[in-house]
Amino acid sequence: MSRFSSFWSRGVGRGGLFAGMLLLSTAASAALFEDTDARKAILELRQRVEALRLEGEQARQALAQSVSQAAAQEAAGLSQGQLALQQQIELLRSEIAGLRGLHEKLVKELADLQLQARSDAQARHALEDRLARLEPAKVTVDGVEFMAEPVERREFDAALAVFRRGDFLVAQNQLVSFLSRYPGSGYVPSALFWLGNAQYATRDYKEAIANFRSLIGRAPQHLRVPDAVLSVANCQLELKDSKGARKTLADLVKAYPDSEAAATAKERLATLK
Which residue among 153, 171, 200, 211 is least enclosed by CB atoms within 10 Å? Predict the structure, then answer.
């Protein structure tokens, strides 16, 4: 019994062991099959991840290349724009330089023209002055208007200035020379009047009377005639010709009653009676 029990025990133990081993083998095989599927799934997953990574990398590279190309194109566009702008700037600078040069040239030409215009104006004025000194001009002396040569006017004015300065002898010489050179001048009546006064001042009474009477006979309506008649009477009085002086004074009052010389003649006549 005990052997049987022992044997049974050993038989059952061995069978259990075999059954256990078989069970373990079956479980191991099942586990092996399960590990293979897992590995396969893992590999597939890895492959998918790798594919996704590759796709992402390719997309990133494509995007980077696209961005790089866009940046390059934009940079190229900017470079071309900058180059075109720089060319325009250089062109404008060249045009400005040309305009500046033209402006400077025009300014110089204008200055030259202004200088030439001033020079021409001065030359024209000088010519006009010379012509004015040579051409006859209208003058008015003692209320008489006439044409006179410039040199004629200068000589008469010079002689009259000498007379007014009190240099009567020199004035006589200049007036005599003037009358000799310009016998038909409109200055002649006035020149005769001042010549007679210069001679009266130097006590050349006879020559003074001759020149006063020449004035009276030449231009009886002249402004200086009443004074010339009075001066004749004064010369006669200096020559002690009282009779002749009274007649001259009376003729003066009769011929020119409204003149200042006539008023003076009346006073003289009153003293001579």
Answer: 153
